[in-house]
Amino acid sequence: MKSTQTPTTLYIESLGCAKNQVDSEVMLGCLEQNGLTLTNDINTAEIIIINTCAFIAEATRESIDTILEYAVLKQNGACRCLIVCGCLPQRYQGELAKALPEVDLFLGSSEYDRIAGHIKTLTSSPAPAARLVIGKQSFLQTADTPRSLLAPGSSAYIKIAEGCSHGCTYCAIPAIKGPYRQRSRSSILQEARTLAQAGIREINLVAQDTTRYRGLASLLGSLCRVRGLEWIRLLYCHPAHLETDILKMMASEQTLCRYLDIPLQHIADPVLKRMGRREKRTRIEALIERARKIVPGIALRTTFIVGFPGETDKDFSELLEFVRDARFDNLGAFCYRAEEGTPAAKMPGAIPERVKRQRFRELMNLQKQISREKNAP
Which has the closest alpha carbon to 17: 256, 177, 247? Predict the structure, then answer.
C-alpha cells in the first residue's frame, strides 16, 4: 500500500458489450453508495477496476493487454488496487491469477453487487491472502440494486436477463454466465421509471437472449407507458423465440423502434446443425417475411460466422444467396475461431485461414453493395 488511508477515488474500464457496461454501472452504483468517487483521470485513481470480456480470443487478448497496461500505474501513478472483474476471471480463474501477479483481486461475474465489501477487505490491514473470488453464476439485478450510469446522454441500457441456456457449440457464454434467468417484470419497470425520471429518453433492452424473456410482449407494452420514454429498442433477439406477438407490439407502439437485431450465424442447414442452432433455413426465411409483413419498414440487422468447421463451398454459396435475397439493413460477420472448452473446437473439418478471410471479404463486399443500394437517394 502506498498509504494507510482508505482509497476514495476509482476508475472503471468497461470492455466488451453493452451487457458488460450495465454490470460496470452496477459496480459503480454500489461503490458510490459506499463513499467512493469516480474519476475520469486514470492517473489519479487509487482503485482501477477493469470489467473484462472473454467471449472470443480477440476480446481475451484485449482484456489482458489492458490489464498489463494499467498495472504500470501501480508503480507510476496513484493506483493502490488493481481489480479485474467479469468474464475473464470467471472463465480462466486460477490460471489467470497465476499469470497476472500484478492484479490485487479477481472477481467473477457473481460479485458485482458485493464489490464494495471486497474492496474494504482488500484494503484492510493486513490485506487478505485470497486474490480470487469466483462464486456461482447467480447474480441477477433487482429494483434495489444500485446503478450509476457511466455514459452521459439521454440513452441507457436495461439488462432484462442473465445467462444463456442454448448451448451453441461455438460459444463459451453459458460456461461464463451460467444458465438463463430473467429479472422480474416489476424490477425492470421500476428501473425504467427511475431512468426516465433522471432524463433518459431512449432505452435499449439487452440480454444474452432478449426474446427468451417470458411475457416479453406484455413487458414491452408496459415499458411504452412509462412517462418520459420516447424510444425503446430491442437488441440480441434470438430467432428461436421471436414470436408474432412481439412483432405485433412493435407495429402498434410508436415508442417501440421498428428495429430488430437478430444474430442468425448462418443459413445452411448442415452448418446450423453443427452449430447447435435449432433453426432451419425455411423457418428463418418465414420469420423475416413475417417481420416485414407485420412491421412495414422494419430495419433488420444480423451477424454471421464464416469458416465454421465443415462449411463447404456450397454452404457458403447458400449464405451469399440468402444475404443477396434478404437484403439486410445492416450485417456483421466474423471468421470462426475455435474457443477453448467449446464442442466446436474439437470438430473435424477446420477451414484454412485464407479461405475464411476470402469468404469474409466476399460476404462483406456483398453487404456493402446492398447497403449502398438501400441508402441511395
Answer: 177
